[in-house]
Amino acid sequence: MQSAYASILGDYSEQLSPRQRQRGKGQAVRLLRVLLHRLRGVEEIEAFRSRNEYYYHSGQFKKQYSLGREGVSRGMVRAVYSQGVGAAWHAKQLAEMRKPRLARLWATKSVKAWKVFFRRVPDYYNAYVHYALAVGILDRPEEMDRARRVAGRLSRRPASYREFREVRAIVGRLALGRQNQGERS
User: Which of 51, 69, 74, 108 is deepest in the core (most CB within 10 A)?
Assistant: First the structure.
C-alpha cells in the first residue's frame, strides 16, 4: 500500500508547479527508498513495481531500463514497459547533455521495446506518450504526433492535455539545443 501511495504521489506531482513537483517527487522517492530496503520476502512482481517506480521518480532511467531487461529475462512479459520508459527518458537525459549519438541509440532501444509492448498491450495510452518522446528524439515528428494522437484517443483526452504538450515541448527544446549548440557525441 505504501508503494502505491508513493507512486501516486510521484505521478500526481508531475502536474504541479516546478517547486511543488520537486517536493512531491522527493517525498515519493524517500518513501520508495525506504521500501526498497524491505523487499525481502515480498512477492516478486510487487518488488519489481516498487523498484521501477523508484528508478522512474528518482530519474535513474538507465537503471529502470536494466530492471526491465532483468524482468523480461525472468518471464515478466510486461517488464518491457520499464525498458521502453527507461530508454526514452535516458535518451532525453543524454540529449540534454549534448550527446546526440548516444541519445539516438537509447531512443532506438526504447522504440524496439515499445514495438514488443504494443504487440501485447496495444491500448495503454501512457506507453504511447513515452513512445512519442523516443521517436521525437529520433527526429521523426510525424510519428511522434501520430503517437500523441493515439494516446489522446485511448485516454479520451484532448491534444492540449499536459502530458502530450510536455512531450512536444521537450522534443522542441532538444531540437533547438541541437541547432544552436552544434552536435557533440
Answer: 51
